[in-house]
Amino acid sequence: MSQMIEGPRKTFLGAAAIGVNLRVKITDGTTKPPTINVAGASDPSIGVTEAYLAAAGPIAILLANAGGTRKMHATGAITSGNSVYAAAAGKVASSGSVVEGKAMETTAATGDIFEVLGTHNSDISTDISGTTAVGFEVDNDSSTPKIKLLGQAAGSGDFTTTLTPEAALSGDNEITVPEADGDVLAAVALAQTLTSKTLTAPVVTAPAVTGAATGVTITKIVPFIENATNTIHTGTVPIPAGAVLLNIQVVNTVLWGATSAGLIVGDDDDPNGFLETVDCKATDLAVGEVMDISNAENWGGKNGVYLVAATGRKGNVATGNSGIYYAASNNVIGIMTVGTPATTTGRTFMAVTYCLPETIAAVATGP
Fold this sequence. Notes:
- By secondary structure, the protein is mostly beta strands.
- It has two domains: 1-124, Virus Head Decoration Protein, Chain: A, CATH 2.40.300; 216-356, Jelly Rolls (Sandwich), CATH 2.60.120.
- The protein has no helices and 25 strands.
- It has strands spanning 9-14, 23-28, 35-38, 47-49, 57-63, 69-73, 83-86, 92-93, 99-103, 113-118, 136-138, 147-149, 216-225, 232-239, 243-254, 261-267, 275-279, 290-292, 307-308, 313-314, 316-318, 321-323, 325-326, 330-338, 347-356.
- The protein is elongated, with a radius of gyration of 38 Å.
């Protein structure tokens, strides 16, 4: 049978020994009277103890809605007039997530018993579905932290601010907003200027070639590393449609130790169009020398059919492709052919530089 009281106190059944001036919560509502124990840091309390309970048994509780003030047990310094919050083991603290009241006097240290004016918990419940207000604040007192969302009077649109965790969390994560006063967050879809930013190992994706694209120069490098097993090493660098090939450079940092090591460089249309077989073991490319297609003086007599100093030819001649301009996508391909593999010493690097230029349409005039 249900019951009710009109007084400020009610008797409960303590689950174990409970100290004095501690916040309590109901742990079992099926017993008569209900069973209680000390409340934790996330538990709104039903009241506080006024006497010490030595062992499990009945104990009267000063209810949370009782008039006047009550004594509570502090976990540290608390300034009078400030909110007090639920803490572990039935105590209260100067900060937390569950408001228990207002401090009526200042505490100095853990263990102090002090006077508190009980108030209802003012945190926003997780059950609240939302608000239609143009703007609102979470925790609108004079202290921080707080969250504030405001609307704009101009315009006819609406906005939604969404904080979404990873699809599959692997542990506790934290999202930190910049702390500098007046700072602005960088947005993916917004044109912004970033100043004094350090990028570690960035991945730059070249933009599509359109009238509004900004030219981006890209260099990709292929390391050919000698091993004692393989006789063929192939490095492929994709060249996107609309790109301008600026240079291909080949260097040795360590000569190869196999019986032979020859590198050819070409593309999808001709495997040695840029460079005929370059001896990377000794004679053609000593350490410190550079094969460089941008300058005939650095061809070393190993230039393929794509490089002709007398005519100025420098590149492919195929449908849509002419010289350094690749209207259709292609691949710059380096192939290192090794004789009998025996060592792991050789190191050759092929650097391919190209850009995707901004296209500016010509203006046709005249009759």
